[in-house]
Design goal:
Elements: H1 10-43, H2 50-81, H3 87-117, H4 122-138
């Protein structure tokens, strides 16, 4: 027998429509942070101590790992073991996990923005913005 997946319920469609709207807004903010950083950097004459840049690089790496664990372990595990009798609970948990993924991905871009405000050169902060963009692409919300 060939079982086709059932179409998502109206509640699931509404939740994922909202998640996609939040996703687009937060993803767009990464680009806005980059633009703001470029404008402010032209007016900044300070230079951040190297230790601050290193600390934020380590924090960003930990944040990237957290997003990858959430997206590729926690979310699939939740959808694989979800009980069909509790669709509302599944949707609530998925919504929270996706929102945490979005927030953490945006945090990586914010680390780059802070460094740019502190006078760190563009070449040294570009990786923060690229990493945030890649994380957002990986975290696109998909219904179970």
């Amino acid at each position: 027998m060939n079982h086709e997946p059932s179409p998502p319920s109206a509640d699931a469609q509404a939740v994922f429509r909202l998640l996609r709207l939040i996703y687009v807004a937060m993803f767009a903010s990464v680009g806005a942070y980059w633009l703001v950083g470029e404008v402010v950097a032209r007016q900044t004459e300070i230079t951040a101590p190297a230790i601050i840049a290193r600390v934020l690089q380590v924090v960003a790496a930990g944040t990237v790992l957290a997003v990858l664990v959430l997206r590729f372990q926690r979310i699939p595990a939740l959808t694989a073991t979800a009980l069909a009798s509790e669709p509302a609970a599944l949707l609530a948990r998925l919504r929270v996990l996706y929102l945490v993924c979005f927030a953490l991905a945006e945090a990586v871009a914010l680390y780059g923005l802070v460094l740019r405000f502190l006078g760190v050169p563009r070449a040294d902060v570009t990786l923060f913005f690229l990493a945030a963009a890649v994380l957002f692409l990986l975290c696109y919300p998909r219904p179970p």
